[in-house]
Design a protein that fits this description.
alpha/beta; seven-stranded parallel sheet; six-stranded parallel sheet; globular
Length: 767
């Protein structure tokens, strides 16, 4: 039908059938998508309601005194048969008031207290998709999410045109129905005949628009995407795209992550951040709710530190900030990171956004830098390369924007760099990944980062380990971002209580923990594997102690001349074989190059096990990613072997579910970061972490001395609050720790300066 001159009768019937069929199909797509969304919400709500009712059914009604007035006449409720908080919730205030001896005040107060408890429990109910389960969050929920995930992207681009076409055409079809029959049309009133003819002509006029937009093909494609999948298809898709499923679930069920998404920020700041719109038009990824909040936090504050625990997607949050700024015309960002993660950053920006990315590192970096200056986008460079990039002049103040607080409202300017010799645009945003690399104010690397931060309107620092050795490190990073805020803190940190500290640091520091926001994340089980050294290994270890060499002491068991004499290696191979038999992949971390070489060699000898790596500091960053990709695609039972400094940063290894750490690290956060490469968003299996330790050795001394360090981090950086009693008490540098550990071990073995001091003996050499 290409003409507007459609005659009543057969031609009209054909046109009406064609248009009505397409409009109904378009409307059906929209209805089905809406049904899928409401179906997900209903399933989750029903599951949470069931869990809450079960929980409240086990709480005696008398416990309500703990959450409300203690003089309530709850005994009257119990006498009337109301035994549990669930009974109170089910009855409601009206029915409670009708019970003998229960007045209106008690009825209303008890019902309100029960409701508060229900809301509290409801917010804490974890929602985990279990497609192989027959439960409410099983295959039914996974199938709904599968269909929504497939259709939501393509539908988003056509939603308005489908809705407009369907509603308009169906109304026109109703008006044109009398034209289906020429005789019937003649028998109608003149006004009805005229409306029918006009509607018929209007239906015909859709033809050029339909041809230009190819709407019929779009409707067919969307209809196919909504088809019911088979169980195996759903399971395999969920296995590959777990993070997308939970991001969609976050979007459909607001508040699923609870208040944990907001860290410990004060309510007034949360309100401001939440109200800020985030432009996601240049993103190719669906953000989790807490990630949206993190991006808004960075935009609202202008200069901020996101200290989320490893595995929560700090990179994606930074990309969301860049994409928002680019969508609003501020299209240049500079990312500074360790060399080991340059490749990963370039891949993530390209994968998750429409932003052009330029690798300003290694061969071709000058050309990449010039392209960034010319075209905009995201430049990714390293701490070592940063000094070779000419610093822009300091930006000049401009009119306020909605995103920056008044004290930081600066817009990008174009400055002529005498070094570069051409117009050099100032980046809108500086992103510093693994920002703890810039924690030492005296280091040249820190000074270079500080110079760029001063000259960039916005700065976003990312690190899951804001505190490595001492609490002042977090404040050092914060000072690079908002020096005025840090300078406003009292001179003596001990004077601050945790609440006061949180209030002070909130404008610059946001941290969320895995367990708080990723309720679906499988558990992480850490096992300390204490082994007893063989006599040969003990002799090898004593030689290392006598030499006073801490590093030799730490790896003595695993570097004993004959591998058969290593208790740690024996246990490691047992763990690998168990994982192989269970269809799991393993990642092995060690600080030492000779240890990872021996582990790779010994693992490769096991039947049915393939070793990948080792990843060491000498392996180029691009090759490290290739090794991880090969490991991910490899068979179950594969083992990735890596130095903890090379593979414990920037690489994502969710394909593994078993982690082995060959020796305790001198900085607890290093272990956490390495484990976070595996136990992170997208992980589908519980993660088993095995820490190999030997009795009566340096491992025990390190564990004792570093226990306090971990407490400081958890209290101060982990929860954004200050642990007063721990400040300075366990602040030991690695050099100090080495001295103390060696001295303690020599004393335990009956020699050394500490032993001589304790016994009053004359200093002596060796053993």
């Amino acid at each position: 039908m290409t003409t507007t001159a459609v005659r009543p009768g057969a031609d009209a019937r054909e046109l009406l059938a064609e248009r009505a069929g397409l409009a109904e199909a378009a409307a059906a797509v929209l209805r089905e998508e809406s049904r899928l969304r409401s179906g997900v919400v209903s399933l989750v709500d029903a599951y949470r309601d069931e869990r809450v009712r079960a929980e409240l059914g086990g709480i005696e009604v008398g416990r309500l005194r703990e959450t409300t007035e203690r003089n309530l006449r709850l005994q009257a409720l119990e006498d009337a048969g109301v035994q549990t908080v669930r009974d109170v919730l089910d009855a409601g205030p009206a029915r409670l008031e009708a019970l003998p001896g229960v007045g209106p005040h008690t009825a209303r107060a008890a019902a309100a207290a029960a409701q508060r408890l229900a809301q509290t429990f409801r917010a804490g109910v974890p929602v985990r998709i279990e497609p192989r389960s027959d439960g409410p969050l099983g295959l039914g929920l996974a199938s709904l999410l599968y269909r929504l995930d497939r259709v939501s992207g393509p539908l988003a681009a056509h939603r308005d045109e489908l809705a407009d076409f369907a509603s308009t055409v169906l109304a026109q079809v109703r008006e044109a129905v009398p034209a289906r029959s020429r005789l019937g049309l003649l028998l109608r009133l003149p006004r009805t005949r005229e409306r029918a003819r006009q509607a018929l002509e209007a239906l015909a006029r859709w033809e050029p628009w339909l041809a230009a937009t190819d709407l019929p093909a779009t409707v067919r494609e969307l209809t196919a995407l909504l088809a019911e999948p088979g169980p195996l298809t759903v399971w395999e898709h969920l296995e590959q795209h777990t993070a997308r499923y939970y991001a969609l679930l976050d979007e459909l069920v607001p508040g699923l992550g609870g208040a944990a998404a907001q860290g410990t920020l004060p309510a007034e700041l949360v309100e401001r951040i939440t109200a800020l719109p985030l432009d996601e038009s240049l993103l190719r990824v669906r953000l989790r709710g807490y990630q949206v909040f993190g991006a808004k936090f960075a935009l609202n504050q202008g200069r901020a530190l996101i200290g989320d625990e490893m595995g929560l997607g700090k990179t994606v949050q930074a990309i969301a900030v860049m994409a928002h700024l680019a969508a609003t015309g501020e299209d240049r960002a500079l990312v500074v990171c360790p060399a080991s993660v340059v490749v990963n950053w370039c891949r993530e920006v390209s994968l998750h956004s429409e932003l052009p990315v330029h690798r300003v590192h290694g061969p071709g970096r000058e050309e990449a830098l010039a392209a960034w200056h010319r075209e905009g986008g995201v430049a990714v460079t390293t701490f070592a390369t940063l000094p070779t990039i000419p610093l822009p002049d300091a930006p000049t103040p401009s009119s306020p924007t909605a995103q920056l607080p008044p004290t930081a409202e600066l817009s990008p300017t174009a400055d002529v760099s005498p070094t570069a010799g051409f117009l050099q645009p100032t980046p809108t945003l500086l992103v510093v990944d693994e920002a703890h690399y810039a924690k030492n104010p005296r280091a040249l690397r820190t000074q270079q980062v500080a110079a760029w931060a001063e000259r960039t309107p916005r700065a976003l620092f990312l690190t899951g380990t804001a505190l490595l050795n001492r609490v002042e490190e977090l404040l050092s990073l914060a000072r690079l971002l908002q020096p005025g805020l840090v300078d406003s803190l009292p001179a003596h940190l001990r004077l601050l209580d945790p609440d006061t500290f949180r209030r002070h640091i909130a404008p610059v520091y946001l941290r969320r923990n895995l367990d708080d926001v990723l309720v679906e994340l499988p558990p992480r089980v850490v096992t300390d594997e204490w082994e007893t050294m063989t006599p040969t290994a003990q002799r090898h270890y004593r030689d290392a102690v006598a030499s006073g060499n801490l590093m030799a002491m730490r790896r003595a068991d695993l570097t004993v001349p004959d591998p058969a004499d290593s208790a740690k290696l024996e246990r490691l191979l047992e763990i690998v074989e168990e994982a192989r038999d269970g269809g799991q992949r393993v990642v092995v971390f060690s600080y030492f190059l000779d240890v990872v070489a021996r582990v790779a060699e010994q693992v490769e000898r096991l039947p049915g096990v393939r070793a990948y790596g080792p990843i060491t500091g000498s392996v180029p960053a691009a090759e490290r990613q290739e090794i991880v990709d090969a490991f991910t695609a490899g068979p179950a039972g594969s083992v990735l072997v890596s130095q903890i400094g090379a593979g414990g940063v920037g690489l994502n290894v969710q394909a593994a579910s078993v982690v082995v750490i060959c020796e305790p690290q001198l900085v607890p956060a290093v272990e956490d970061q390495a484990i976070g490469r595996v136990h992170r968003m997208g992980q589908r299996r519980p993660v088993q972490v095995h820490r190999l330790l030997t009795e009566d050795s340096v491992d025990e001394r390190i564990e004792e001395l570093l226990a306090g360090k971990r407490q400081v981090f958890d209290a101060y950086a982990g929860e954004s609050s200050l642990a007063q009693e721990a400040l300075g008490a366990v602040d030991v540098t690695e050099a100090e720790l080495a001295t103390r550990v060696v001295a303690a071990e020599q004393a335990r073995l009956g020699y050394g300066p500490v032993w001589d001091e304790l016994t009053g003996a004359e200093p002596r050499e060796g053993r």
